[in-house]
Here is the input.
Amino acid sequence: MTKIAEPSTGWSEASIDAAMRVAQVSMESAERMMRLQLEAAKTFIAEQAETVNALAAAKDAEALTAVRARLAEKTVHSALGYSRDVYAIAAQTQQQLSEMAAQRFAAYQQQMGSAMEKMIKAAPGGSGVAVEAMKSTMVATQTAVESITKAAQQAAELAEANLKSLADAAAIAARDAKKK
Here is the structure.
């Protein structure tokens, strides 16, 4: 009988390492998001003070309208910038996690392939049907994972394109509002 305990020990160590890397990436992402939110809060407070001063300095309706238009444009640009930054953090994190998952799956496939080869070599005569069934299952699993990975990548690309379109539309709307 073939000894399979050796690869499984490596799997455990690799799983622990992978879990630690996922935790590290997640914490780094959360830290970047917290810094972004803190900066946004600081900016918001500063902008509110500026808004109060600008509104207090306005002498007539025309000046108030100009202040309102300037504030609206500034708000749209701030929101777009914040959205882009949030998306950049999320996209970077998603890419790092996807790469780790792909590496982990490739290592798993290699280990399973090696274990499968050992089992095939040690298989008793007449077990060809079982061996072929195992090979077929491995191929089907690999194909399914590749399809899921491709679909996830396409979804991420679609989300990025939608965010860019939304940002572009908001920038155009802000520019058009400024012209009025």
Summary: The longest helix spans residues 61-122. The chain has a mean pLDDT of 82. The chain has one domain: 5-179.
